[in-house]
Amino acid sequence: MLNLSPNKIKSNIAEEHLSALKVLQTPKAGKLLARWIIGIFLLMVGAMFLPWQQNIRGDGEITAINPADRPQTVETAIAGRIEEWFIQEGQRVARGDTLLRLSEVKEKYFDPDLLERLREQLEAKESTIANKEEKADALRDQLQAMEEGLQLKLAQARNKLQQIILKVKSDSADLVSEQVQNKIAEEQLERQQALFEKGLKSRAELESRSLKFQESRAKVVAQENKYLAAQNELMNARIELNSIETEVREKMSKARSELSATLSEVNTSEGELAKLRNEYANMRIRSENYYLTAPQSGFIVQAQKAGIGETLKEGEAVVTIMPANPGIAAALYIKPMDVPLLSKGRKVRLEFEGWPALQFSGWPSVSVGTFGGVVRVIDYVESPVQPNMYRILVVPDPDDEPWPPQLRMGSGVHGWVMLDEVPVWYEIWRQLNGFPASLKEAPDTYYEEKELKK
Predict the structure, then answer these.
(1) What's the predicted TM-score (pTM) here?
(2) Chain centroid to CA 406
(3) Residue-number span of the structural domain to which 270 is assigned
(4) Do residue 181 and residue 271 come from a single domain?
(5) Count of domains in the chain?
């Protein structure tokens, strides 16, 4: 029926009694379902244009931002045997508290009075050095006295030599004078002889002149002997001068040699003294290491050695200390493809194991049980703990809710580093194509440049 006539009869027909019409009608449930499907479709289409915040996911554990706040093992500096424990596991200790006492295991250090004996050796060696230094000072004084005595003796010998030289000159002049006198006497004798032969002089006068000639000759011989004696005395004076200088120089050389030997002994003793002082200092420090103390305040987590009488090697770990009140941080491990998108100061949402969270990574505003953080450190090399992953350190966000105080080192954490906002449809398209997240601007390198300038 086309139902074209203006006279309607539909209202006069009881359709509920006609089964054929019932079959042709659309069920109400179908209409309701169609409306729901259309509504859901419209909602999905509308949701495609909602903002979605891109993020980078990473898993890791709780750690400390300061390496000094991380759990550390306390190692013994010397080998020894455990004699007494002063702490128990879980106990809080302050810096400098005694943890345990050790005893020696090396026979070299068994003597309980070893420090006192080393000190006595030090005092004896110091006394020896002092005596040798006094001997060296005495030798220096002796050398100085020898030098002064040498100069005095040399001055006396030179004066004597000068006097003898003058005497030799005087005797030489006297000899020449006597020779001249002798020559004159000889000429007078010859003239007297000639006159005697001519009869002009008597024999007595001749004999008198001859006697004077003989006397002059005797004076010449005597003066020659005196001159030769003066020359011998001059030679002896020169020999004596050289002998004095040689003898004193020899004594001074011997004294210098003895001084050098003494100074060498002093240097050797000072080297031995320095060695003894080093040994004494090492022994004193070693005795202080008999008591193992806490390097910082914290809690005794675990003892690697137990009981009394166990021996320890040098550098062996004894206990583990967890520092008190550490500055905690979250260490997250990120894929290499996501590292270029990160920058210091980026906001992070964290989910700690033990604090369940209904997490919508793209809508941090509706997250339940998550906590805020800020990227503080981005490693420049891959992590040795998780190869092919890069570690970042996240610290609490000062503008967000504080992290739970019950967090323990090493507990698991899941994090989402927040990036830029994009439409939902773009995020779905990116995920389907496996593209990395997009940024409107290049990552901020201000913090990195600032640290490099430092």
Answers:
(1) 0.58
(2) 40
(3) 114-288
(4) yes
(5) 3
